[in-house]
Amino acid sequence: MSLVHNFPFFSILLCMVSGIFTSVLKPRTAKWLTLAVAGASLVLNAFTLGLTLGLKDAYPFMMGHFPAPWGNEIRIGQLEALMATGLSAVVFIALAAGLYHTPTFVAEKKQNLYCIMIDLALAATLVMIYTNDLFTAYVFIEIMTIASCALVVVRQNGHTLVAATRYMVMNLLASGLVLLGISMLYGITGHLLMEPLHQAVLRIHESGRYAGPLTVVIALITAGLGIKSAMFPFHAWAPDTYAYAPPMSSAILSGVVSKAYLFLLIKFFWRVVGIDIVIQQQISQFLFFAGIAGMVLASVMAISQREIRRMVALSSVAQISYVYIGIGMGTEAGLAAALFQMLAHSAAKSLLFLSTWELVSVSGDHKRFRYLHGAGYRNVPAGIVFTVSAMSMVGIPFTGGFIAKIQLAAAGMPLGGWTTALVLIALALSTLLNAVYFLHTVVSIYRRRPENIEYALPEKQPRRIAAALFLSMMLTLYLGVGSGPIMRVIEAGLKMFT
Amino acid sequence: MWQLLYENLEQAVAVILFGIGFCILLLQRNLIRKIIGLNIMDTAVYLFLASMGFINGRKAPIVAGGVQDASAYINPIPAGLVLTGIVVSVSFTAIMLALTVRLYRRYRTLDIDQIALMAKAEDAS
Description:
heterodimer; A: mainly alpha; two-stranded antiparallel sheet; 76% helix; 2% strand; B: mainly alpha; 5 helices
């Protein structure tokens, strides 16, 4: 075992320990430390990815003193390392571009706390990606819930408080469902580690006993994680929460937090229950139809929004639906497309939230579209970045979103019959709707500004914000142009995943 | 059916309690009642776990009197899970109460729907 084998554990530990130190540092130092931690997590996980590329199979990493069936462990494969690297990168970029603005939203005394919550959210994300133990996953779901709620509520205004309360209530309901599901599963299997759990589930399924409880368990955990990741019929909390949270929080919530829940759900389906049983219990079909409905209806709702941030938030719901369609297909190709969509959406959506804020802040803090006219000229880098990430959302070639849509369509082909037709029609319709609202926005930020509105001159911003935005734009473009290697890693990772 | 229910009485009660707590948390408009619902819901899960781990005629899993045989004790893992769960729900209750205090100071009501309306009105003015 080399040093690199320990890196996933180090990255988790680093985030949690730095959270403790952050609380006693000066706000400025705390911010730099948080940024450094996110960067270190990115580097550590990238090394892990490099290591796993050369491995034949995923390796377990024992936590504590007891070996497998009793103790706790994490498990590191290509897929886990890829997701951890991608999501750490998104957190790093969001911090680099957003930390400068935190004083606008966060009171001076609360800045350290804000940094702690970011550290915690990143730690929880990494644990949910790597963990091999269902109860550890539950504990970190709760830590994530606390951290994400704190990320929203840190902004002191009425709307945000209401949004945060709603978000918290929905999250608590979802946590309750997940906890009950895990308790029942433990009751019928007697295991919490994923491999023995999977064997036990297979035995139960073969024997035909506990068929009812097993269905209930899968439904409970799916509903719980679905609510938390803003799956379509359960998305009601999402628009307000994303729209009224500080922009960096929205970027992290939509770009990273929801992806961590999704990855956990994928793990639960493929590694704990086994996708065949999920298909047999008709849960995956439900996800498939929810996804189809979500990608069309959430886009329709997004069109009817008059505020840019609510529109971006609803487009998040539509994009998450793509992931659910991929999962709902129940095939390896569908899952690969879903995973790629998770990465592509994570990179592009965090950018959209950040650049939207930049555009709004040079338009006198008005979020209505007509005030945004000409914002693309008043802040040129933000305009360019917004345009590129909007193109990724729509699925224009050379961006990550395009590849995700192609992969999803290709995965839908072999399903045959009306399912294929449904996937293709929904994709086409959703692309069209996305184009309507995103390109409309892009056009409106490059229109001539209305004569009768005067804007205060924006203060000069440090170049590193523009640099960070451009860097992450490169990530989106890279996902569009150089998707080959990433798809290969995902496919190889899926082989060692189950 | 009744036989089955009788054999799994604790679990059945726990699931019913869970449902009650869930509905209160989801449907009540009063924030304090929501918090009570949250606690009922979580406690129901602890009842579920604890009743599953309990084996009639055995002792709590604390080694006393030198008895090391596992068959003398009940399963300790559900108890551990319940402890973890209690910590989690206490911290959630604290956060929800803090949010409630903050909302009450600002709007002088506990009704979440009214608060939402007032926040909207605040935005328009």
